[in-house]
Automatic annotation (TrEMBL), chains A, B:
Signal peptide: none
This protein's name: LysR family transcriptional regulator
Bilayer-crossing regions: none
InterPro entries noted in UniProt: LysR_HTH_N, LysR_subst-bd, WH-like_DNA-bd_sf, WH_DNA-bd_sf
GO CC list: protein-DNA complex
Any GO MF annotation of the entry: DNA-binding transcription factor activity
Origin superkingdom: Bacteria
Keyword line: DNA-binding, Transcription, Transcription regulation
Amino acid sequence: MLHLARLRTLHEFARLGTVHEAARSLAYSPSAVSQQLTQLERDVGIALTEKAGRRLVLTAAGRVLAQHARTLLEDVERAEADLAATKPVLSGVLRVASFQSVMLSLIPPALTILFERHPELQVEVHQREAEAAYAGLLTHEFDLVLGEEYPGLDERHRAGVQREALLEDPLLLAIPREGSWAGARGLEDLSEANWTADPDTVLPGIWVRSRLRAQGIEPRVRFETIDLLLQAHLVRSGHAVAIIPGLVAREHLTGADLLELTDSPHRRLHTAVRTGRSADPATRALRSALAEAAGALEAVPPGS
Amino acid sequence: MLHLARLRTLHEFARLGTVHEAARSLAYSPSAVSQQLTQLERDVGIALTEKAGRRLVLTAAGRVLAQHARTLLEDVERAEADLAATKPVLSGVLRVASFQSVMLSLIPPALTILFERHPELQVEVHQREAEAAYAGLLTHEFDLVLGEEYPGLDERHRAGVQREALLEDPLLLAIPREGSWAGARGLEDLSEANWTADPDTVLPGIWVRSRLRAQGIEPRVRFETIDLLLQAHLVRSGHAVAIIPGLVAREHLTGADLLELTDSPHRRLHTAVRTGRSADPATRALRSALAEAAGALEAVPPGS
DNA sequence: GATATCGTGAAGCAGAGCCGAACGATCCCT
DNA sequence: AGGGATCGTTCGGCTCTGCTTCACGATATC
């Protein structure tokens, strides 16, 4: 009888390409992965891997089995979700990967809603950048990822992941009420301003630079940080201007002027889970709570 | 991680209803089955079984998981079939359950065809009655069942089994050329004849009696046997008349008269495999060989 | 109320499957 | 060309899984 654990190992190897990475992803030693793949070959009686230089690659048969492994593992997760649905009360721990702006504004009210409905259900929230979050999702480190997309920078489709739109969050120009740029009425007044922005290694930082350049501004980024609270503080205290998501601005930039950009760009927030888990009742409950929290925020105009 | 072997045990328990029978079907001890079910409950954290008197029955959650187990096991078998399809030559052993009339006439030419195409592929044929054949199919004792249906006695649908029509085999009235009934031209001349037929515990025996009664004949079954060769011999030697399938009659009743019954009834032969195996190349090869052998027989008129 | 049959639990044992260390092969960089 | 990094595999040793056997209590049956 085939062994699901070994199929999972095969799948991780197929996904990641090397024995070492598969081992790391599964918290095994490379030796264990090697042995599992060997055993799997014995089980099915067909060569699944072959050497290519110092690396190991899947044979045609290996790819066939890895593909089946993926759907089997999804089905297993679906089975677990169906099983959880037979429980009268939701319990257990949901692990969520998110980033700062959402943790600040959306997660707390969502958790309040969730706790009212399912007091037994616990949530752990971990701050991660996008790549780590999605990697952790696939390795079962997390059960749900809160992700974001910026206009024109659509994320690639990820295999085994099911995504759901959550919120459109306006990207606002934040200008201090005091200092050199107070009173600016738009980007056209800010070509010489000091900026604070995310580094250009992450999506928001890439987007904001490209956006400003598209309007003829080469921003002088004096304060580069992914910490939006710090960015907000720098704006409030008059040291810089920034483009800040509404979710953060509405609460932490009440002392600054917030202007809509032309054609009012929005970042799109979404939730993502492993495909097999989309029917899991705890997952659904969390997604509902997040959607309601998002709806409540949208109903209140920013800055109020 | 869920364990496929344990899911298979759950599935067998769901199918058969008791720990002991599941154990027997899997060639385990009852204790092992009990422990596997307990372990499975620990794995999923939900009660899957509960006591009902001295027996054990599935809970709602147990039924949910058992259902998933069935589809998972089918998918595993599909995966194995896909894998086998990557092999250049077919090999291994196919185990077939059949009954006498088919083993006599259809299997030999089919195996000849099969051997020409896939000399590495071996076939074991076991003679079984229908229930034992299907039970053995589900427990992996057999890979393919050759079954039959009689007009008006349709078999019930069996879960997890995929069926394919193979041949319509005419049911012929066989009358000796010598003795009291020689020269009879139809059932109307045979109301007082001695008959040979299958016992009324099996499908052919049930059908033949019901058919004769429908035409006003209460057959005097003097020789009750499932051995069609014996039936044929009894007819040839003038001791009885019988209704014999064309597959047997064409070869073993050349010394008797064969008459079509009114509205020429046929038994319908089919092949059946576990659902997951229908794509398996060896299975497909065997089915094709059987179909071709059947076509060759149909092309030749009976009794020639 | 005797007896068969149900499922479960404890003891013991064989084997599965993990890790760590050592190894050979391959690639890469200088 | 050659040293070092990285690849995958193998071996010894150990732990833990998971089987069987045997014994037991509970339930149904006659």
